[in-house]
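Homework help thread (please don't just give me the answer)

Our assignment gives two proteins as sequence + structure token strings and asks us to describe the second one. The first is just a warm-up. Here they are:
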Amino acid sequence: MASNSYEYGNNGLFTVFKSGKHSSHPDFANLTLLVFEAVMEVVCVSAPGYIVARMGQFDAESQKFLANLNTQLFTPCLSTCNASD
């Protein structure tokens, strides 16, 4: 009985390290690539705005206008576009 006390069957944490693939789980490399792509999209969109703001090209009124434009126009468009996928 003591020899079976650490037997977890196929439901344990260490089944991840087994070579058999489970059909309902995505490939870890593919999932990592998708997350990396999503993060890089955010970086590529926000980095130019950050650089221009640090250079002093936008005053406070322009930043407020762009922030309102983003929340009232671009974000709803993005969420609608993503919902249709």
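The one we have to describe:
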Amino acid sequence: METIQKRRLDSEMFGEEGRLYFVDLMEAKNKRPYLQITRADYQAKEKYERSSVILFERDFEFFVEAVSMILRRYSYGEGRPA
């Protein structure tokens, strides 16, 4: 059985105490890459509640474009609260 470490191609983590984000580039069983974005929120008793989004390789370009467009508009003051 293949471990998750062997399937993880690259990884970044950021956040602060109580809330962490992981951006992992993974390799599927068919050898195609996919992106897994996970948020982990600290709960009581040393436990974390996790939620993830998976993006397949065919959607990478669209995802990057959408995030870039949102951040570009935000940097020019569009979409910010008054």
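TA reply:
I won't write it for you, but here's a hint about the kind of observation we're looking for: The beta strands are 8-16, 19-27, 33-43, 47-56.
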